[in-house]
Amino acid sequence: MGTIHHKEKWECNQYLNGAGPPANQERPNGGRAGVALKNEQSIVGDQPDGDMKWISLPRSLPCYPHCGTIEIEYNFNDGIQTEKHPKPGKPFAGFRTVAYLPDDREGNELLRLLKQAFDQGLTFTVASGSNGSEAVTWSDIPHCTGFTNPEPYFLMTVKQVLKSKGIE
C-alpha cells in the first residue's frame, strides 16, 4: 500500500522532539486537536467521518526484528465542515495516510487504544492552511508514518498522550 504524501510529512521521531503536528482476535474490531468536548463518558473530538483499517505485514520494522508489522491505514474523503470545524458549511480536503506499529503484544495493545481514540474522533482534525483552505490533518496523537526506526520510547510516549485524553 502506498500513501499520499503532503508537504508536511511527519516521521515518528519528530513527535519525541516536540516537532510533531499540533491515533485477529486480540485486536479491536472493525485529532482532535481542535475543540474537544468532555461528556460524562469520554472526550469527543472534531474529527470528520473517516475509516481506520489495518493489516499485518510479514516484514519487520527496523528496531523490532522479532515480529511483523501492523500497517494502519486512515482515509478521509473530501467533505463539508460542520459546526465543530473552523468554517462550518465550507469544504475541506480529505486525507489518506498510513502508520506503523510492531505486531507484538505492545503494538496490539497500542492498536486497541488508537482505535478507541479514532472512534472518539481524537486522531485527526480539520485545520486551516496558510493558503486559507481547510484540510484533514493529524491531531496531537503521535504516529510512526514511515517504515523507519522509531525512538526507543515512542510507544510509551503514544500511550502517555492517549492516557492524557482518557484512553486506557
Task: Explain how this protein is built.
The chain is of the alpha+beta class and 168 residues long. It is built from three helices and nine strands. The protein has helices at residues 12-16, 105-119, 154-164; strands at 37-38, 43-44, 51-57, 68-76, 79-80, 91-92, 95-103, 124-128, 134-138. The strands form four sheets. Strands 3-4-7 form a three-stranded antiparallel β-sheet, covered by helices on one side. Strands 1-2 form a two-stranded antiparallel ribbon. Strands 5-6 form a two-stranded antiparallel ribbon. The protein starts with 11 loop residues before the first helix and ends with a helix. Mean pLDDT is 78; it is low at 1-41.
Sum this structure up briefly.
By secondary structure, the protein is of the alpha+beta class.
List the helices and strands and how they pair.
Layout: H1 12-16, E1 37-38, E2 43-44, E3 51-57, E4 68-76, E5 79-80, E6 91-92, E7 95-103, H2 105-119, E8 124-128, E9 134-138, H3 154-164
Antiparallel strand pairs: 1-2, 3-4, 4-7, 5-6, 8-9
